[in-house]
Amino acid sequence: TATVDMRDESSVKQLVPEVLDRHGRIDGLINNAGIAPAGKFATQDPEVWKDVMTVNVIAPMMLAQAAGRQMIEQGAGRIVNIASTTGVRGKPYLVPYSTSKGAVVRFTEALAAEWASKNVQVNCIAPGAFVTEAQKAVTESPELYAKRIAKIPMKRMADPAEIVPLTCLLVSPLSSFTTGAIFVIDGGESGKL
């Protein structure tokens, strides 16, 4: 396990060599980065866009490229990109975030097609409403929480631990014929479109 500051390009570039020095190989990469500044698109500073795209798109692509080269050399590997349901269907006041996570979804599909013959599986998980620090304003307000879960058929938000089993499956040999898939975990909310 290793972590990196996704805003720092040199830190991103150093991660794969550091992991290889410690472990000698890379079997899996889980790209789980995201910042989601809310705001009105018409007045949003372009620097916000640059920051969101750096953290949510460019750094994960750099990590996938570096780790993927090693996986190809090893003859196998698995990459799991964490997107969001807002990357599958946009959300108002989260235009940069929605756009960036949509890019992660398309990146997953394109890279999976390119690396499938190299035995590197690339998949994506698109979580919906999870109880995280980013959702603190919602989870700490009974009124906002009630409004939020009213949109979810399961009538609750997910615990972050609920994403773990699928993530583990996707980085394990049990998913050897799964690539290019986008797994939506949202308590049925997206089925209500």
TrEMBL record:
Coiled-coil regions listed: none
Record family assignment: Belongs to the short-chain dehydrogenases/reductases (SDR) family.
InterPro entries cross-referenced by the UniProt entry: NAD(P)-bd_dom_sf, Sc_DH/Rdtase_CS, SDR_fam
Source lineage: Bacteria, Bacillati, Actinomycetota, Actinomycetes, Pseudonocardiales
Enzyme nomenclature, EC number: 1.-.-.-
Protein name: SDR family oxidoreductase
Name of the top EC class for this enzyme: oxidoreductase
Transmembrane stretches, start-end: 163-185
UniProtKB keywords: Membrane, Oxidoreductase, Transmembrane, Transmembrane helix
GO molecular function, one term: oxidoreductase activity
PROSITE patterns: ADH_SHORT
